[in-house]
Amino acid sequence: MTSAIQCTHLAVRAGRTEILKDVSLAIEPEEHVLLVGPSGAGKSTLLRAIAGLAIPSKGQIHLHGELASDEKKLVLGPDQRGIGFLFQGGALWPHMSVAGTLHFVLKRKGLGRGDRKRKISELLEIVDLAGFEKRRTPTLSGGEAQRLGLARALATEPKILALDEPLGPLDAPRREALLDQLQGLTQRFGLTTVHVTHDPGEAARVATRTITMSESGALGD
């Protein structure tokens, strides 16, 4: 079986600081993998490198057998990688409405007006935000913002879902609700999921495997 994600001797630098050091890992299709480790271990940097949002200084990344990054060269840009990215706090555009947020992504994807309208309704139904179309993003609660961020990530019909501490800003009931939703959606759409968290206990029940990163920016034991 071809791995969904294959990183080989991957390194990422920020100026003179090496954030990731010689990281090699393989993640199989439909796995839900937790990346855990102390603050500064490079968990989010690894996630961003896989998504094409950080440029490696060394090594290669293959996605479903296709070369995506080769040393310092991005062979595939972020929009070509089939990855939906859910940022901490949703990272929503504050000047947009809920529908406008999804409209922007779907228009870039090339969908016509009628298809965009149908897809927006479908996505909001999936994340339990039907009826929120006209709400402005700053008025959303933390849980609602994360669900909209999830809908935006799913709008591109990704094969891989990248989650950067999506539960961090939520209280316990909202964390549980979003975890249930994530588990259902990843199984429903057959997604491979890479999930950065500082607290492995909060998401252990949905994970198939946990990878620990050390303070040195390498994979731990």
Question: Which features characterize this protein?
Answer:
alpha/beta; five-stranded parallel sheet; 221 residues
Task: Describe the protein in words.
The chain is of the alpha/beta class and 221 residues long. 30% of the residues lie in helices and 26% in strands. The strands form 2 sheets. The protein has a 5-stranded antiparallel β-sheet, covered by helices on one side. It has a 5-stranded parallel β-sheet with strand order 7-8-9-3-10. The longest helix has 18 residues, at 172-189. It is globular, with a radius of gyration of 17 Å. The mean pLDDT is 89.
CA-to-CA gap between the ends?
25 Å
Number of helices: 5
Topology pattern, helix = H, strand = E: EEEHEEEEHHHEHEE
**Inertia-based shape:** globular
Mean pLDDT across all amino acids: 89
Strand order, largest beta sheet: 2-1-4-5-6
- Helix percent reads 25-40%
User: Largest beta sheet, briefly?
Assistant: 5 strands, antiparallel
In short:
The protein is α/β, with parallel strands linked by helices. It has 5 helices and 10 strands, in the order E-E-E-H-E-E-E-E-H-H-H-E-H-E-E.
